């Protein structure tokens, strides 16, 4: 049986509170975890089984008229490992229960609408775990760094997002916001790794280098996201992402603990179980 080496709930250690300082944040750290990589990988699998059951309970609730859902918001720069979280963490649960949405450069149609329009259309239905691979936060990240709209437009968005998320939460969606933060050196190594492998060339674009050149601006923009939108109802969990095994372990733990607190009971049968058993028995040959 996998050993639980969490020294404490990682949601405490990883939550971006008022004193959070991105500039000094150790991106190669493993906060809260008292074991090594092997132990971490084993425990991820163990927790994944719990996560899978919780997901099934949520799905069952949704099928029985419940309105609750979960939304995992994933943010991080290129190579931070968002795709790995989708594959390795969400890959541990039934794909039927997951609603994945990726947000890239807005389409011509999306650009004619408010920035939250395309986000609202991809919110998870009741009973699902929605996963946003990038999100509305791009509208205060890349949009800010690349000056795609004036500051007078993006600045009020922090408050607007907080208000929007609050309404979403009140309507029954548990919002879990995770930012994967890699170091500059690790991002460089991962990009070089893509160039070194022909089977990874498709993942590379020259635009990744243009984005990397704006590293400091992106760090400032992320720092403000954590400063202004890590709310009581929907805090940011900032995950050191240089060690992929830790990032996956931590996100699995955060999601599992959060869902365990939802009090997801199996729905009561809406039929007479004894009668159903008798009726079934009568069909046996
Ligand atoms: P990824 O790089 O995550 O594999 P894509 O290449 O499909 O995915 O697109 C992501 C790109 O879309 C990123 O460069 C991101 O900054 C950009 N993007 C996402 N949302 C917006 C937005 N609202 N405005 C402008 N660019 C955006």
Kindly describe this structure.
The protein has 285 residues and is of the alpha/beta class. It has 13 helices and 5 strands. It has helices at 10-14, 37-63, 82-88, 108-111, 117-120, 142-145, 151-154, 157-170, 184-196, 206-213, 215-229, 244-260, 273-281; strands at residues 69-76, 98-102, 129-133, 173-181, 236-240. A 5-stranded parallel β-sheet has the order 2-3-1-4-5, with helices on both faces. The chain binds adenosine-5'-diphosphate (ADP). Adenosine-5'-diphosphate is lined by residues 78, 103-106, 134, 138-139, 142-143, 148.
The first-to-last residue Cα distance is: 42 Å
Strand content: 5-15%
> SSE order, as H and E?
HHEHEHHEHHHEHHHEHH
Quick one: overall form? globular
Write the layout of secondary structure elements.
Elements: H1 10-14, H2 37-63, E1 69-76, H3 82-88, E2 98-102, H4 108-111, H5 117-120, E3 129-133, H6 142-145, H7 151-154, H8 157-170, E4 173-181, H9 184-196, H10 206-213, H11 215-229, E5 236-240, H12 244-260, H13 273-281
Parallel strand pairs: 1-3, 1-4, 2-3, 4-5
Helix pairs in contact: 2-12
Bound molecules: adenosine-5'-diphosphate.
What's the gist of this structure?
This protein has helices at 10-14, 37-63, 82-88, 108-111, 117-120, 142-145, 151-154, 157-170, 184-196, 206-213, 215-229, 244-260, 273-281; strands at 69-76, 98-102, 129-133, 173-181, 236-240. The protein is of the alpha/beta class. The structure holds adenosine-5'-diphosphate.
């Amino acid at each position: 049986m996998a050993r639980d080496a969490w020294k404490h709930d990682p949601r405490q250690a990883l939550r971006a509170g008022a004193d959070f300082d991105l500039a000094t944040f150790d991106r190669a750290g493993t906060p809260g975890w008292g074991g090594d990589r092997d132990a971490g990988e084993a425990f991820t699998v163990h927790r994944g089984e719990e996560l899978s059951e919780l997901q099934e309970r949520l799905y069952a609730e949704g099928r029985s008229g419940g309105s609750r859902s979960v939304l995992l918001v994933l943010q991080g720069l290129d190579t931070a490992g968002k795709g790995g979280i989708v594959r390795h963490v969400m890959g541990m649960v039934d794909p039927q229960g997951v609603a994945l949405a990726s947000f890239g450069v807005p389409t011509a149609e999306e650009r004619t609408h408010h920035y939250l329009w395309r986000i609202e259309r991809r919110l998870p239905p009741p009973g699902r775990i929605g996963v946003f691979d990038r999100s509305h936060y791009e509208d205060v990240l890349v949009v800010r760094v690349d000056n795609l709209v004036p500051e007078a437009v993006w600045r009020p968005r922090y408050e607007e997002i907080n208000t929007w998320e609050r309404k979403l939460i009140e309507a029954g969606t548990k919002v879990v916001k995770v930012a994967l933060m890699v170091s500059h050196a690790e991002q460089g190594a991962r990009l070089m790794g893509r160039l070194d492998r022909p089977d990874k060339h498709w993942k590379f674009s020259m635009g990744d280098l243009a984005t990397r050149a704006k590293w400091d601006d992106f760090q400032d923009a992320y720092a403000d996201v954590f400063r202004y939108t890590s709310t009581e109802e929907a805090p940011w969990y900032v995950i050191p992402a240089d060690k992929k095994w830790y990032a996956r372990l931590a996100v699995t733990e955060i999601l599992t603990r959060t869902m365990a607190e939802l009090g997801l009971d199996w729905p009561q049968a809406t039929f007479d179980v004894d009668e159903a058993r008798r009726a079934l028995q009568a069909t046996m040959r």
